[in-house]
Amino acid sequence: MAAGTGQYPGLLCATGCFLNKSSLWLCRAALYALMFCSTQVVAQTEAANLAANPAESPARSDADAPDNSAEPESAGEELPQWEFGLAAAALRVPAYPSSASTSERQFLVPWFVYRGDKVRLQDGGAKLIALENSRFTVDISLAASLNANSEDAPLRLGMPDLDYLLEFGPKIDYRLFDQKYDSGQRRRMSWSTALRAAISTDFESVESRGTVLGTQLRYRHSGLADGKASVSVSLSAAWASEKLHDYFYQVDDAFVLPERPAFDAGAGFVGAGLRFGFSREINKRWSAYLSVGTALHNGAKNRQSPLFERDNNFTVFGGVSWEIKRSKATITVLGD
């Protein structure tokens, strides 16, 4: 939630990465790569859907008029078990929730998607599937957010930097509907709720930061533009424990200034989010992505904190992805 409120999820390959400074660059590269996986996997999935279902290919004769009659709700898709490639991306996010300062990052990293029966690296990070059927998925998932330097946020000058934030815990996904059409288009809506423990790290130490409760309603429409484009929109909200709010908004006596009075943060509402996404398949190997979102902090618990600046923040993420290889083996995935 540093540099945003968990809006850029991924997974840190933490095992063995806290041992020495020489491994820091590798950990950071892994974090960026896995964050990108969560964004690019949607368009990669749509491309795989077309390959696995040639009857839905956009190539058809002029006599075949588009038919938008819906088929019965989807029973899942046959997708590659793994894919990997390279990604170039840039993002701009707030330094922390409600901050007027921003963090801008550009990176070129490898990405990897894995879909197993119980373990998956996709769609928001890493997850361990506990239960899955045509309506529900229950899993234990991991997510991460970027760090922020206090020297880049004027209100936090002289205060500790905000480290990378990792979150892990149970999540429930409920598929409200999932419909495919004879034209090759597909419409899906899902609702998910996650309760996660949060920890912060600079890759040399780890500290507990409390818990986060988040919920999201997401709509996706794929198969547009002759089957090569998809759009999505999501609405989310988050609440956090006092310990996490302390991390962002509390001002202890040691950091008090005339313009920055002491403040004791409390548990409660963090904010809501609205995000629009677009992905386009350029060819069989290349895809492009764009995501624009806003975080709304009206009614947030700690609006009176001297570190609270704005009622709304904006985020932008864009990039291109090159798929190098995918497995011949496939797996049926529900609700991907």
Account of the 3D structure:
The chain has helices at residues 24-52, 224-227, 242-249; strands spanning 77-80, 82-94, 102-115, 119-121, 126-132, 136-145, 164-180, 186-201, 206-223, 229-240, 268-281, 286-296, 312-326, 330-333. The model is unreliable at 4-27 and 38-66 (pLDDT under 50). 12% of the residues lie in helices and 47% in strands. The protein is mostly beta strands and 336 residues long. It has one domain: Beta Barrel (Outer membrane phospholipase (ompla), Chain C). A hairpin with a 7-residue loop joins strand 2 and strand 3. It has three helices and 14 strands.
The helix count comes to: 3
Q: Structural class of the helix and strand makeup?
A: mainly beta
Measured by DSSP, the beta-strand proportion falls in over 45%
Class in CATH? Answer: Mainly Beta
CATH topology: Outer membrane phospholipase (ompla), Chain C
Radius of gyration, CA atoms, in whole angstroms: 21 Å
How would you sum up the global shape?
Answer: elongated
What characterizes the major β-sheet?
Answer: 12 strands, antiparallel, barrel
Number of domains: 1
Strand line-up across the major sheet:
2-3-4-5-6-7-8-9-10-11-12-13
Low-confidence stretches: 4-27, 38-66
Q: Report how far apart the termini are.
A: 25 Å
- N-to-C SSE string, H for helix and E for strand: HEEEEEEEEEHEHEEEE
Query: Please, what is the average pLDDT?
Result: 82
> How many strand segments?
14
Helix content: 10-25%
CATH 2nd-level architecture: Beta Barrel
